[in-house]
Automatic annotation (TrEMBL):
Composition bias, Low complexity: 89-100
Record organism: Flemingia macrophylla
Reaction equations catalysed: [protein]-C-terminal S-[(2E,6E)-farnesyl]-L-cysteine methyl ester + H2O = [protein]-C-terminal S-[(2E,6E)-farnesyl]-L-cysteine + methanol + H(+)
EC number: 3.1.1.n2
Protein name, entry field: protein-S-isoprenylcysteine alpha-carbonyl methylesterase
Length: 459
């Protein structure tokens, strides 16, 4: 049976309105078995009630209901956006008044707190998640000395341009981490953070941004809408628009538009991989206009990502990301193939697009039980089999958070970090010489606390 034609993956909401997922407290579950099903009730298919032209007594009931639903839609549409976050450009980011800085800190703190509670509300409060929440609390306390230092850098460093607007949707902002040395154009990493498609946030990349900027590399951490404010196609659309902004504007911030690298971690690695596959399909098609090109991306780095959703549904369900929620994020079981880059590149209709993909390097720890390391191995093997340039690099015994948090906080030499910088500076002998003389990174957390964090980590 011939394979169906591959089509680009546009945002499925043509009017720009993301799906709204709400649930009244007193509403009964239709299934009654999976507690997560009670959280999913969409107004997406309900047409909005008409607005009455006059306030007569016969129309008050209709207008009241319409106003009620509109308010609920407005609350859902803005739930992850900042209440009054200013737009920081390279020229206007500093100096700031104490009052505006206080408002920004309050906005960021409010959002981070909300993301944590939102994830807990979706994952339920059963025994499994109570124990994991306790483990997460212990994990966070053990790494707290490092978080304090990274947070201080994020809010007070003059090398960061926070919340640059790249689009007109909620959360369409990015942070830029700029090297202190401004001599000559710098290589750039466009980074898409993880967060189980539910709690992703641009500040999660601040430690990586800080450490790469110390090696003369600009980092752009791209924020995007999370579930339930958006589904996977919205996340891909946001990320693609953020990549477009970087490709078209990074020269204004001292970046080299000919040396742009794309990177994603965990769920962000999946989203970024989907973005480049979708872009390849668009560029291989005829008459498809795009605002950026894969030829501008020197390489794609995937860190601890998953690329075949069929292999991950049951695994995530066993770890608490319930099947019903995961399928809602991915727009239904029928869309799993569409959002599985490993499967998409094998489709015969994708053949012309293979040559457009940038070189792909996949990093993964063999001790990762959030997303098994086989996810990166099989994707790299599949890419090589269909003719793409790809490789996977495994880090023995490293977990999902070791390669992204514990090892960078340990200071000194970090294999994954050195491999990443080595790829970025591979064609720059002067930069490689500076890397060889670079001082060891500063330790942020005592070793005993890092080892305990490794043992109690729920990820």
């Amino acid at each position: 049976m011939p394979s169906p034609q591959i089509l680009p993956m546009p945002n499925r909401h043509s009017d720009g309105t993301p799906p709204v997922v709400v649930k009244a407290k007193d509403e009964e579950d239709e299934n009654g078995n999976d507690p997560s099903l009670s959280l999913l009730h969409s107004f997406e298919d309900k047409a909005p009630l008409p607005r009455a032209s006059s306030f007569t007594s016969s129309s008050r009931k209709i207008n009241g209901a319409s106003s009620f639903y509109k308010k609920r839609r407005r609350r859902a549409a803005s739930q992850d956006s900042f209440p009054s976050l200013p737009d920081h450009s390279a020229a206007a980011a500093y100096p700031r008044s104490p009052s505006s800085f206080g408002r920004e800190v309050a906005s960021e703190t409010f959002l981070l707190t909300r993301l944590g509670f939102k994830m807990l509300s979706y994952l339920g409060v059963g025994y499994k998640w109570i124990t994991r929440f306790l483990a997460l609390s212990c994990y966070a306390m053990l790494l707290f000395p490092g978080f304090i230092q990274v947070g201080y850098y994020y809010f007070f460093s003059k090398q960061i341009r926070r919340s640059i607007v790249y689009g007109d949707k909620p959360r369409n902002r990015l942070d830029l981490y700029l090297p202190k040395n401004s001599n000559g154009p710098k290589p750039v990493v466009a980074f898409i953070t993880g967060g189980a498609w539910i709690i992703g946030y641009k500040a999660w990349g601040s430690l990586l941004g800080q450490q790469l900027s110390e090696r003369d590399i600009i980092v752009a951490c791209i924020d995007y809408r999370n579930f339930p404010q958006g589904t996977i196609s919205d996340m891909i659309a946001d990320s693609s628009q953020g990549i477009s902004f970087v490709c078209n504007n990074i020269a204004e911030y001292g970046g080299d538009p000919n040396r742009i690298y794309l990177m994603g971690q965990s769920a962000g690695a999946h989203i970024a991989a989907c973005a480049i596959v979708e872009q390849a399909i668009k560029e291989a098609g005829e008459g498809e206009s795009t605002s950026w090109s894969l030829s501008q991306i020197k390489a794609y780095f995937g860190l601890s990502g998953g690329y075949n959703l069929f292999n991950l549904v049951d695994h995530f369900n066993s770890r608490g990301l319930y099947r019903s929620i995961f399928l809602s994020i991915m727009e239904g079981e029928e869309s799993l193939r569409r959002f599985s880059p490993e499967l998409m590149v094998q489709d015969p209709n994708f053949g012309n697009a293979i040559s457009l993909l940038p070189p792909i390097v996949l990093f993964h720890g063999t001790g990762d039980y959030s997303i098994p390391s086989d996810a990166s191995k099989t994707f790299a093997e599949t890419l090589k089999r269909v003719g793409a340039t790809a490789e996977s690099i495994m880090y023995e015994g490293k977990t999902h958070t070791d390669v992204f948090l514990q090892d960078p906080m340990r200071g000194g030499k970090d294999d994954m970090f050195e491999d990443l910088v080595g790829y970025i500076h591979s064609g720059d002998a002067e930069a490689r010489a500076r890397d060889a003389k670079a001082p060891p990174r500063r330790r942020l957390v005592p070793e005993c606390m890092l080892k305990l964090a490794h043992s109690v980590s729920p990820f």
